[in-house]
């Protein structure tokens, strides 16, 4: 709304599996095949489709804004030289590329559970946080020592500084949404392995069949074109996009053209503050608008 008020033509996308994106030309959302995807597929199929649609409709390069997984798929895509010809610049909030220092107790316990191939225990293709099997699973995780799920947003995202009660209520009516269990396994592999790579099928033979090599290929973020305009904003209290992991990402960008890389660090912000913090407009969004306007 702030972008629209400032004269921008705004297009909003949804990641597949959310309630706004459950249709398919042949597959039913109740089938396991519908949920056979990870964020690799968002990089290969969904992001290009979105960018192409907007580009064809407008005939103009676009400014991209992503938060959390929206930053992950953009960084992975840019690292392979994709979308750069149609994207003018990118603003990445709570950037997620590396996850090994994630400090959220619930996230850490969940990541360990998923890496032990929770899918075999579950038999669940869709991970629906509002469904009974997932609720039962979360109760087990929340019973672990050191995990306090009384305040679920804090348990997942860190101690947000700037939320008000009505915004949180509205947020919790809409979040969290479904994703594929396989996608969470992939994210958990990123936590475990400390590298950004394609989905690991768990055996040399399966990886060989999918990739032509025994280990899943890595996304090399140093390949992002050094003259591509990037705005990164991250928070000191963010338990998902941890300061150390963002440091690893910034290290990958150390050869980026200085005038093309804008980095904002907000000491008191956690993961949700970037989306629903009451101070986000003044602290973050106004900076993004200035950044976009400076790109011409």
SSE ordering: HHEHEHHEHHHEHHEHEHH
Instruction: Describe the strand arrangement of the main beta sheet, using strand numbers.
Output: 1-2-5-6
Q: Please work out how many helical segments DSSP would assign.
A: 13
Number of strands: 6
The residue fraction in helices comes out at: 40-55%
Report the major sheet. 4 strands, parallel
Gross morphology is: globular
Q: Compute the average pLDDT.
A: 88
Cα gyration radius (Å):
19 Å
- Which parts are unreliable, with pLDDT below 50 for 5 consecutive residues or more? none
Structure description:
Keywords: Lipid degradation, Lipid metabolism. One of its GO terms (biological process) is lipid catabolic process. It comes from Solanum stoloniferum. Residues 3-253 form the AB hydrolase-1 domain. The structure is a single chain. By secondary structure, the protein is of the alpha/beta class. The chain has 13 helices and 6 strands. It has helices spanning 2-5, 39-58, 69-79, 105-115, 118-122, 132-142, 152-157, 165-174, 181-193, 204-211, 243-252, 273-276, 280-294; strands at residues 62-67, 87-93, 126-127, 179-180, 230-235, 261-266. The strands form 2 sheets. It has a 4-stranded parallel beta sheet with strand order 1-2-5-6, sandwiched between helices. Strands 3-4 form a two-stranded antiparallel ribbon. Helix 11 (243-252) links the parallel strand 5 and strand 6. Helix 2 crosses helix 3 and helix 4 (105-115) packs across helix 9. The longest helix is centred in the N-terminal third of the chain and has 20 residues, at 39-58. The mean pLDDT is 88.
């Amino acid at each position: 709304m702030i972008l629209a008020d400032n004269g921008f033509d705004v297009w909003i996308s949804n990641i597949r599996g959310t309630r706004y994106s459950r249709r398919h030309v042949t597959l039913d959302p109740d089938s396991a095949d519908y949920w056979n995807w990870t964020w690799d597929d968002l990089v290969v199929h969904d992001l290009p489709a979105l960018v192409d649609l907007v580009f064809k409709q407008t005939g103009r390069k676009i400014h991209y804004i992503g938060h959390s997984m929206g930053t992950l798929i953009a960084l992975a895509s840019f690292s392979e030289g994709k979308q750069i010809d149609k994207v003018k610049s990118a603003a990445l909030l709570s950037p997620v590329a590396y996850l090994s220092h994630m400090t959220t107790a619930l996230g850490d316990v969940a990541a360990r559970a998923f890496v032990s191939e929770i899918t075999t225990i579950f038999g669940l293709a869709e991970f629906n946080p509002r469904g009974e099997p997932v609720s039962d699973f979360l109760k087990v995780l929340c019973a672990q020592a050191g995990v306090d799920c009384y305040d679920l947003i804090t348990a997942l995202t860190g101690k947000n500084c700037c939320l008000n009660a009505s915004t949180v209520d509205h947020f919790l009516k809409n979040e969290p949404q479904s994703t594929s269990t396989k996608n969470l396994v992939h994210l958990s592999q990123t936590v475990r392995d400390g590298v950004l790579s394609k989905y690991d099928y768990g055996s040399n033979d399966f990886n060989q069949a999918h990739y032509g090599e025994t280990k899943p290929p890595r996304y090399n973020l140093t390949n992002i074109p050094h003259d591509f305009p990037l705005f990164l904003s991250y928070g000191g209290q963010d338990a998902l996009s941890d300061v150390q992991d963002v440091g690893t990402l910034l290290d990958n960008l150390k050869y980026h053209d200085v005038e093309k890389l804008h980095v904002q660090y907000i000491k008191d912000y956690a993961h949700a503050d970037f989306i629903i913090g009451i101070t986000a407009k003044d602290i973050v969004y106004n900076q993004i608008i200035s950044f976009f306007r400076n790109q011409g």
